[in-house]
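ok trying again, last paste got cut off:
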Amino acid sequence: MSDLKNVQPLSDFNWDEFENGSKANVSKEELEKAYDETLNKVSEHQVVDGKVISIDKKEVVVNIGYKSDGVIPASEFRYNPDLKIGDVVEVYVENQEDKKGQLLLSHKKARLSKSWERVNAALDNEEVIQGYIKCRTKGGMIVDVFGIEAFLPGSQIDVHPIRDYDVFVGKTMEFKVVKINQEFRNVVVSHKALIEAELEAQKKEIISKLEKGQILEGTVKNITSYGVFVDLGGVDGLIHISDLSWTKKVKHPSEFTQVGAEIDVVVLEIDKENRRLSLGHKQLEENPWDTYETIYTPGSIHTGKITEIMDKGAVITLNEGGEGFATPKHLVKEDGSQAQPGEELQFKVIEFVKETKRIILSHSRTFEDVKEEPKKAPRAKKAKKEDAPVINNVAAGTTLGDIDALAELKAKMEKGE
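nice, full thing came through this time. structure:
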């Protein structure tokens, strides 16, 4: 028994082989080598794909098929709020094993290593990409795109002016790369370009369904000196100032309507290529000048009210409709005084031009023409003394002694000579 107590265990005895009856002799090094061969071969400073296996507020754990998993700060994924377990992400291998035996990975560096290629491809292919708005800066915002800090100008955030930029900070939005400075590696993105592209598609569809002569209801969007822009539900059209009214002389469209007002229009012209619409409002009614042509004939007299007086004359609103114009000399009343605004008087039509919508009137002519008498027929010409028969002269020069001469003269008279 004492000999049994002195027996030393074999250092390389394999109990598994003993129990299984196996005679294979596999060393520890060989086992480790076999295990390593089942793992991915990973080199430092390499970009590889990994699978997200865990997510919390501070860290994201990624498995790249190596003997240990990598832990990445959650802040590197804040541009992607939809990140979930099972997603495949790109990671950069910083160190296969730190002092604690931990695999060091970086998602940010992986994005940066390919970001410049991606952003150039996005510009060339007009891709829609996602970006995270990091902060506000002078004139716009800083956006994280593929790990690059891109500039979003304030004018490129929306189609409408933005008053408060801060409401966009921390948001993930879609963008389009619109400009790249290769020398300084500056990137400019736009969200407005996406909205405009969508609006253009809507315009194209709406315009394709429109027809000339179609009557629509719209909203006044903008007013300029030359016309009114009307929103027809995704597409804008222009009513030229001359197409607002048949009768009213509109000096500025703001006299006729206002922004936000509802207005009925008729489609006059459609430019599908340039996506432009020409609209009219007065065309909703028949042209009253066709009727005026038969009413306001030159020489006819009508009642009108003086609505405006200017240096060159006055505007008169006629009772039958329409407006006429009278110069100062045609505004003199019968008593010699000048007609005043608001007075209702009789006016004679001096001139009517349908093409230019011109009616020239005169109040003075209504009474001046009445006073003029028609020209009298010429009277019979009285015989002058010198045209009297010669008998007068003869008689005046005859003496009592010229009896024979008188007798001869009398005989001539009786004979009608």
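cool. The longest helix spans residues 107-124. The chain has a mean pLDDT of 82.
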